[in-house]
Design a protein that fits this description.
Elements: H1 7-10, H2 22-34, E1 40-44, H3 50-58, E2 62-67, H4 70-78, E3 82-85, E4 97-102, H5 118-123, H6 133-143, E5 144-155, H7 160-169, E6 172-181, E7 186-194
Parallel strand pairs: 1-2, 1-4, 2-3, 4-5
Antiparallel strand pairs: 5-7, 6-7
The chain binds S-adenosylmethionine (SAM).
S-adenosylmethionine is lined by residues 18, 20, 23-24, 27, 44-47, 50-51, 67-69, 72, 86-88, 103-105, 121-122, 132.
Enzyme class: transferase
Domain Methyltransferase: 41-103
Protein name: Release factor glutamine methyltransferase
């Protein structure tokens, strides 16, 4: 993802749809590894559909690509993906996916500096960078099968420890399955498993 300082420069230069970058590649590699033949897979915030397409091309899985941005939905559909325009996981049925994967908008953004277009929806994580991470973690457990898992891209810009603590409060154990460092941030892919009820 772009450095926060570059965001103003990028306004007006981008298309309406986030194009695959290092974060997309990291998430795709972890997702392909997690998916087994026959799995039902949901990519939340699919953007161009590139991550979902990697999964569909390498695994015999049913892949649904979802995004709130209608331009992104069109690009993903043009790749031949099954696409649903959706706010996070809201339209999907309970217990319906084995794997849910998400590269959220995560750049911390000053509220006075928001610019209100589809690229902002793709990049800006609000003041904390966790604007969408928090509701996603609260809601994703509902659509996940009990033996399923979530893959979530997290940046050092959004504080991995805080994300892990929100995930724990939402009933998940986490492990980092990918890590890559750049001059301005470290990226991880966290794999989240629902924790069963404590029977001890
Ligand atoms: C960082 S981009 C990731 C795009 C793509 N998955 C990738 O890795 O290349 C974040 C995506 O989340 C989408 N998004 C933002 N808010 C959303 C919401 N409330 N529900 C679903 N998708 C959302 C954006 O439109 C954007 O496509």
């Amino acid at each position: 993802m772009a450095r926060p300082d570059d965001l103003a420069e990028r306004r007006g230069l981008e298309t309406d749809v986030y194009q695959p970058a290092e974060d997309s590649a990291l998430l795709a590699s972890a997702t392909v590894e997690a998916v087994e033949a026959g799995d039902a897979v949901l990519e939340v915030g699919t953007g161009s559909g590139w991550v979902a397409a990697q999964v569909r091309e390498t695994r015999e899985a049913r892949v649904i690509a979802a995004d709130v941005n209608p331009h992104a939905c069109r690009q993903a559909r043009d790749r031949g993906l099954e696409v649903v325009r959706a706010d996070l996981v809201s339209p999907f049925r309970t217990d319906s996916f084995d794997v849910v994967t998400f590269n959220p908008p995560y750049l911390p953004t000053d509220p006075d500096n928001e610019w209100d277009d589809w690229m902002e929806a793709a990049l800006s994580g609000g003041e904390t960078g966790r604007r969408l991470v928090e509701p996603f973690l609260e809601e994703v457990g509902r659509v996940l099968a009990s033996s399923g898992c979530v893959l979530l891209l997290v940046s050092s810009l959004t504080d991995r420890e805080v994300v892990e603590s929100i995930a724990a409060d939402a009933g998940f154990e986490t492990e980092a399955v990918r890590e890559e460092s750049y001059p301005f941030e470290t990226l991880w892919v966290l794999r989240l498993f629902p924790v069963g009820p404590d029977t001890s």
